[in-house]
Design goal:
binds adenosine-5'-triphosphate, 19 helices, 2 domains, alpha/beta, eight-stranded mixed sheet, Rossmann fold, 491 residues, elongated, five-stranded parallel sheet, binds magnesium ion, 38% helix
């Protein structure tokens, strides 16, 4: 007999089902019907995922059993739902539309109940076997290979991680039409829900504990769906709740998600917490962000150093500079010289961003015409263009599978900065006009405001508009090998 779960308010019907199944059926505790499959799984606790769910129409509000059956059909199509109803033929059509396998009369006798449940169980097993072997929904191939996990990180807060992560996830879902999930790993103060105007039923907590941890199909029922089709795991409702999430939880969650989704975008808290390190460990791609300010850029350099030493920077990574404007007093070249590697994308400071954040509608969802929207599209394209891991891009050391990785302890003794390792001669270097900037900057340059008129205007202009100075986004080889004298403030 199949694994059966029964939700009914009738002790008499429950008894007949128990006898028909040889005592195998599990009964939900008395009370109203669960509102969705996730709540039903929560009520089941640690037990296995059922093959057949029997929902008594009389146990809930009118129509609730069919509404729940409909959710099962969408979220767990391999679980067969049987509805118990005395509505006769009147329920046949709505039941069919809700994907119900069969309808049982509350007065049905034991043999009939057994026959219906056995048949429903067989159908469920066939569906499961077909799904396991069968051909593919879009994205299933990627899923089998393991989806791409993109971590969005920065040493400092407020540099635009959530803005970039939400737009990137929406952009990837739209552009590729592949299953995409966004995970808010800012476990204490995550604001992805607010950035996407979501009111989630479940948060990160339910996805790392209980039934969701054993089965990806069950896990999916705990995700929140955004209007764009994107799936989202929102941060916990309170900072205290975050204490219940460990690095191991994060690691397991991302592994499960990568087996089911083609794109897993991970927003993180500033710095290198246990959760962020666990996410980095699972990431196939990285977006490293900084704003245009000296402490932020210095922080990014340190982060690159330490992650390089730990071998935690994957081949596919993008350095993204946010809040670019001509008044910051820093140029892209300054930043590159300081961090020792090229900047892949420059995002302009834009008034459209706070508006979109306040409305909870990301720029790539609304399609607002704005230079920021354009740059975010370029970021998405950068990911969709790099289908397979590229060979050594001549950047920081990549994950070396064979080499034993040191424990991710941040206090690792620092040897020579990994980013400063001898670089091969630039392959693509087209001699660039040696910028005024490259000259060592006078100490005074540190003190903001920076009055130097030569530096300010033209440089920032170039940083933002780019085409002449930077090949669009794929600056990799040329950009990365360009070793520049670090400005004095960065030494
Ligand atoms: N390019 C931009 N132009 C103007 N405002 C921006 C830009 N990028 C981000 N912002 C604004 O900066 C603020 C911080 O952005 P965001 O929340 O994305 O940063 P964060 O790195 O996720 O912050 P935290 O580390 O605190 O989570 C937000 O109010 C956002 O609207
Ligand atoms: Mg954030």
């Amino acid at each position: 007999m199949s694994d059966i779960v029964l939700a009914t308010a009738s002790a008499d019907f429950e008894e007949r089902v128990r006898r028909a199944t040889g005592g195998m059926a599990r009964c939900l505790p008395p009370g109203p019907l669960p509102v969705d499959p996730a709540h039903l799984f929560l009520q089941l606790g640690d037990g296995p995922r059922p093959e057949v769910v029997v929902l008594d129409d009389a146990a809930g509000a009118p129509g609730q059993a069919l509404a729940l059956a409909d959710l099962f059909q969408r979220q767990c199509p391999d679980i067969a739902v049987v509805v118990v109803s005395d509505a006769g033929d009147a329920i046949a059509l709505p039941a069919m539309r809700a994907g119900v396998r069969d309808v049982l009369d509350p007065a049905a006798e034991e043999p009939h109940i057994r026959w219906v449940l056995e048949r429903a169980g067989q159908l469920a097993r066939h569906t499961q076997a077909f799904a396991a072997a069968g051909p593919s929904a879009p994205g299933a191939e990627e899923g089998r290979r393991g989806g791409r996990v993109i971590g969005v990180v920065s040493p400092k807060g407020g540099v635009g991680k959530t803005t970039v992560a939400t737009n990137l996830a929406i952009g990837l879902a739209q552009k590729t039409s592949l299953p995409t999930v966004l995970v808010d790993l800012d476990v204490q103060f995550g604001d992805v829900a607010s950035a996407l105007n979501l009111d989630p039923e479940h948060s990160l907590i339910e996805t790392v504990h209980g039934p969701a941890t054993r089965d990806t199909m069950v896990l999916k029922t705990f995700l929140t769906q955004h209007a764009s089709g994107l799936y989202v795991i929102c941060g916990p409702p309170t900072p205290a709740a975050a204490d219940n999430v460990t690095g191991q939880d994060v690691s397991r969650l991302l592994e499960m998600l990568a087996s089911e989704f083609a794109w897993v975008v991970v927003d993180t808290a500033p710095g290198l917490s246990e959760h962020t390190l666990a996410a980095l460990d699972r990431s196939t791609d990285l977006v490293l962000m900084t704003g245009m300010d000296v402490p932020g850029v210095r922080g990014l350099r340190k982060e690159l150093d330490i992650l390089g030493e730990l071998g935690m920077i994957p081949d596919r990574h993008q350095v993204v500079l946010n809040f670019a404007d001509r008044h910051s007093g820093l140029s892209t070249a300054d930043v590159e010289a300081t961090i020792g590697t090229g900047v892949d994308l420059v995002l302009p400071r834009s008034k459209a961003v706070p508006t979109s954040v306040n409305q909870g509608i990301p720029l790539l969802q609304s399609g607002v015409r704005d230079p920021m929207t354009k740059q975010l599209r370029r970021l998405v394209e950068q990911f969709t263009a790099s289908a397979a891991p590229t060979a050594d891009r001549g950047r920081v050391p990549i994950k070396a599978p064979a080499a034993p990785r040191p424990e991710p302890v941040l206090a690792v003794p620092r040897s020579e900065p990994v980013l400063a390792v001898p670089r091969s001669e630039p392959v693509l270097v087209t001699p660039r006009p040696e910028p005024v900037l490259a000259a060592p900057r006078p100490e005074a340059a540190l003190a903001v405001p920076r009055p130097e008129p030569v530096l300010a205007a033209p440089r920032s202009e170039a940083a933002l508009s780019t085409p002449k100075r930077r090949a669009p986004r794929i600056t990799s080889e040329s950009g990365r090998h360009r070793a520049r004298a670090r400005p004095r403030w960065a030494r």
